[in-house]
């Protein structure tokens, strides 16, 4: 495993409902650094062509991510970013993130080869299918069918096409983390 100290970027990938956002927020708070969410880089409606959506991980606007995040980060410049708002299907107002010693990127597709120039320490959050379904039903019952029929198959295609889990620097099992926190008395419930 590569040493975390060698990297300025930590990227957290894995299936939906595996705990990526929670871990990203915790690390961001602990390390006092920004956390960028891949969900903010979904394709806009006019970009969603059949050809693009058939590509593994093609539902992310990697071109905009590269322009807004990678280039500024690699040049140690402030990041000027515009998050995508799924409900309005528009880009939000620009936000400026000042240069920081560490940056966290979390979300499905965070380990896409398009982002390799950031030389990130890659964490993969894993979850077993039964727990994933249970968590999705609890948190997103109104969108559950979309997850099962659309998003999970798209993620699986991406994970397999690029061997995402296998190429990660560290793999966490959500179940083992929860068990360890329970044992230590940090969690009363899952």
Give a nutshell description of this structure.
The protein has 190 residues and is an alpha/beta fold. The chain has six helices and nine strands, in the order E-H-E-H-H-E-E-E-E-E-E-H-H-E-H.
Question: What does this protein structure show overall?
Answer:
The protein is 37% helix and 17% strand. With 190 residues, it is an alpha/beta fold. It has a single domain (8-184), classed as P-loop containing nucleotide triphosphate hydrolases (Rossmann fold, 3-Layer(aba) Sandwich), CATH 3.40.50. The strands form three sheets. Strands 2-7-1-8-9 form a five-stranded parallel sheet. Strands 3-6 form a two-stranded antiparallel sheet. It has a two-stranded antiparallel sheet with strand order 4-5. A hairpin with a 4-residue loop joins strand 4 and strand 5.
CATH architecture type? 3-Layer(aba) Sandwich
Largest sheet geometry: 5 strands, parallel
| Rg, alpha carbons | 17 Å
Number of separate domains: 1
Key features of this structure:
190 residues; Rossmann fold; two-stranded antiparallel sheet; 17% strand
How are the secondary structure elements laid out?
Layout: E1 9-13, H1 20-31, E2 35-37, H2 50-54, H3 62-74, E3 79-81, E4 84-85, E5 90-91, E6 95-97, E7 103-106, E8 121-126, H4 129-139, H5 144-161, E9 170-173, H6 174-184
Parallel strand pairs: 1-7, 1-8, 2-7, 8-9
Antiparallel strand pairs: 3-6, 4-5
